[in-house]
Structure formats: C-alpha cells, structure tokens
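Example record

Each entry pairs one chain with its bound ligand, fe (iii) ion.
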Amino acid sequence: MMEKTLIYNIGSLLTLRSMKRGPRTGKYLSDLGIIKDGAVVVSGEKIIRADKESVVLRGLRRESIAKEINARGMMVSPGFVDPHTHPVFYGTREEEFGMRLSGMKYLEIAKAGGGIRNSARRFRDASKTDIKKQTRGVLKRLLKHGITTIEAKSGYGLSFESEIRSLVILKELDGKYNIDIIPTFLGAHDFPDEYQNNREEYIRIITDEMIPFIAKHKLAEYCDIFCEKGVFNIDQSRRILHIAKRYGLKIRMHADEIHSIGGAELASELKAKTADHLVAVSSKGIKMMAKAGVMPILLPGTSFSLNTGKYAPARKMIEEGLAICLSTDCNPGSSYTESASLIITLACLHLKLTPEEAFVAYTINPAYSLDRGHLYGSIEKGKIADLLIWETANYKEIPYHYGVNLIKSVIKRGRRVI
Ligand code: NIG
Ligand code: FE
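Structure tokens for the complex follow.
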C-alpha cells in the first residue's frame, strides 16, 4: 500500500483545472479552477483526489492516511514550472551589472569579451565539483521560491568537453534536490574566444560533434540557440537547428530578444516548441507563431534587470491566440533571480497580464511547453503531487506583495521538502 497524505483546511485551492485540455489561450488563460475550502489526497508521488474538503472527507477512510498537513485556511497552488533557466555556470558577473549601471549596453559588454564568454572562461577554469556545488545552490533557491520543475540549458561551456560536462551535471542533479530538470543543449549560446575569427569551425563542432554525441547519449531533450544580431544569425540558426531536429532534438529558441531579425518567423518555420524573449518580435512573427503552435516564453525579469524599458508585447500575443508562458531566465548575466513571485509581479506591471493569466503562464502552460502537461502544472487526479502552501489565502496578493517570498511549504512528488 502506497503511503497517503491528506492536505486539508485549504482556504483556496488553485487547481488550474479547466475544460480546455492542452496549452491555454484566450479566455482559458484566466481559468484557475479555484476550489474554496478544498482538500487534496496524495498517494506516493501522485495526486489521487482534489476537491471540496467536505467531498474529499466523505469518501475517505481516515485510517488509510499516514500523514496530514493542515494548510490553515491558506492557498495551495501547483508548484511553478520554470521553462527557461541557465543554472549551470561558475562565478557571477556583478561587475557587468555595475558596467550597465554606468551606461554600457548588454551587447556592448558582450562584444568587448564580457557576457556569456566571460562566464565560459570561468566555467572552463573550474572543477566539475565546484560547478556542481554552485548549481546546487541555484536549485535550492529555485525550490525555496516554489519552482519544482525547470527546463535547464547548458551554454556556458562553449566547447565539446565543457558543454557535455554541463549536461552531465544537469543529469546528475535531476531530482536530487527536489527539482525535476528537463535538459536543453545550448552550445550555440555564443562563439567562444578561440573561434571569434573562425565562426564556421565552431558551428561545425556543434553540428558534427556535439549534437550527434548528445543525441546518442540522450543528454538533452531540446536544442536552443541565441539567435541575435552579432551572435547566431538566422541562416546559421536555421542550419544548426535543422541538424538538431534531424538528430531527434526538439527546438526552443532565444528569438528576437534585442533586435527584430526574424527569430519568431524561423521558430515557426521549424515548428519549434517555444520562442523565448520576443521583446522585439514582429507582428508577422506573432501571427506565424500562432499558426505553427509555437509557445512564447516571456522573461520580464531580463528586461527589468537589463533596465531596457522594453518588454515583450504580451497582450498582442494573447489577442493572436498564443499560449504564453513565464520564466525567470535565471542566469548570471541578464537575469540573476530565482524568484517566480517577482516575475509574476513584473509580468502584471510590464507585460500587462492579469494575476490569473500570470499563474496559468507559470504552471500549466510551461508544463505543456515541455511536453509534460500530463505530469505537472495542475492539481488533478493522476498528476505528480508538486504543491505549494502559501502564507496568503488570495493569489492576488502575490503580484501585489512584491519582493518577498510568501511560500510557507513546498511539497515535491508527495513529500514535504520545505
Ligand atoms: O537568456 N540571451 C542570451 N542568453 C541569456 C543571457 C546569458 C548571459 O548573459 O549570461 C538570456 O538572457
Ligand atoms: Fe536565456
């Protein structure tokens, strides 16, 4: 018999269930499926009941329950699913934050040898043990902020050996610190120092050496690229991503973050799973994404931390029927945060999402963006029991009460871990 846990006295239970199956768009982006005075029963790692407490208790033999958790009238929501993170890096880049404070731009710093290449140098000089230790710190902070599943990218190694090391670290850490990790290969994050003047050779290493090895050893599920002016252009991106697809990797893309260069259009052409950032996306790009079913991952923390004043046109995307998602973009350069709640605040203020839309975009939609809508993102029978117990009964407090962590407890795969 599997051990059962009852979570009861839930003032508001955000189940995120909906009539609509699959990624939520339009009015379904506001469907939180709230149950007042709810209860949840968990058996092993899975949810077996989620309903009104009176209904749940009626059908329950109390002696079959090994553990009870009193939510004290507060809110319970699904764990956040963060669909765009870069948690494997070594060292930090606060000096670049300082340079930006004195007026330098993100791409200027990168061009001068800072940015991603700065992180790559540190990564290569560090031992695997030290990198792993630092990544573990990121995971622990993500979990404290209620993030129970992440998509995680490599991309600070920029050489065969160090990109593989990055993905191996992710594999080793998957599930170890109560966060499920879905790995993405991002060898095409930038051109490393040694190939600045021979970019084609680095592309060859990615397509002929890294991708085949990663596919063979199943080290990543997705392939991503930083498609941007001065980094990987459209043509190079198309070539790399075509090869990735041929090897069975699914596609996510850093697209149209700073310059409108047709990233969203390429993502649509390639039937990518997601196109991320999209601050400078064109109207045509949005329309093409809608048609191709590409999900936008919006990263308002990046606009905020880079202090560009420019945010992705989220309302326009919603109007066009896109299934928006939110994420931290947690990385040491452009968005060093593990706080999902802060991202929700920024999404409401700058992307003009409603609190309801922000919750959908941080739970069920990102689960679908990772092809795991059947496992995560809502509190329904059969799903993995990843639950957050909050210090408030009202989800509307989350964007409003900003810069603090209102999470009281985290339940991961049926076990209380915080
Ligand atoms: O998503 N834009 C490219 N990649 C990261 C930033 C990486 C870095 O600056 O270290 C991003 O913002
Ligand atoms: Fe990113």
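Residues 86, 115-116, 119, 226, 254, 257, 302, 329, 331-335 surround N-(iminomethyl)-L-glutamic acid (ligand 1) (CB under 6 Å).
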